[in-house]
Amino acid sequence: MEANFWHQIWADGHIAFHGSQAHSLLVEHLEKLQLAHNSRVFLPLCGKTRDIAWLLSQGYQVVGAELSEFAIIELFEELDITPHIVHAGEFKRYHASNIDILVGNIFAITPEDIGQVDAIYDRAALVALPADMRVLYSAHLVALSKGAAQLLITFEYCQQQLDGPPFSIAQPEILAHYAASYDIKRIVNRDVEGGLKGKVNAIETLWLLQKIRP
After folding, report:
1. pTM score > 0.85 for this model?
2. Strand 61-66 to strand 99-103: parallel, antiparallel, or no bridges (unpaired)?
3. How far apart, in whole angstroms, are the C-alpha atoms of residue 135 and residue 123?
């Protein structure tokens, strides 16, 4: 899945995955991360999600990574915030009070680029990537965040009935990616109302990943 695929998705406005409000699972379960006020939450492949506005409204800092600059321009317009934009190596950094977004290839981001990460909220990154890239992404995310705790949302459905993204990811794969670094707990398991993309029965799952203590 090449970068041009995602650039075209945003350019064509094919963003049915973009919700009009903060995700209910985030709103209902963020407290399980036990974050202090002003903690810094990383949203990989963040797009222009309304989750960002909600996190800011709750007193958290947001750091994001996104391939599409178009999405980030719209994000700041919808937030009614004028960002300070600088070139930072391979990236453009969109920065304002309590929000810092790196526009570019997430696999090229280093811990120094992203800075402190207190927690990760992965609503649409792991599920957006094909299987071979998920292996690389999950390892990169752990290294990038130094094993910061995660809320992770996945879907499970018959992949033969519908092309991803979002892709179907079952529990064994979650364990394969993350069990070496995290204690993993399934928090919510629920049917997707109306089916995924209105086409196929699917289960949406929220996972809590917490760093294994020595």
Report:
1. yes
2. parallel
3. 17
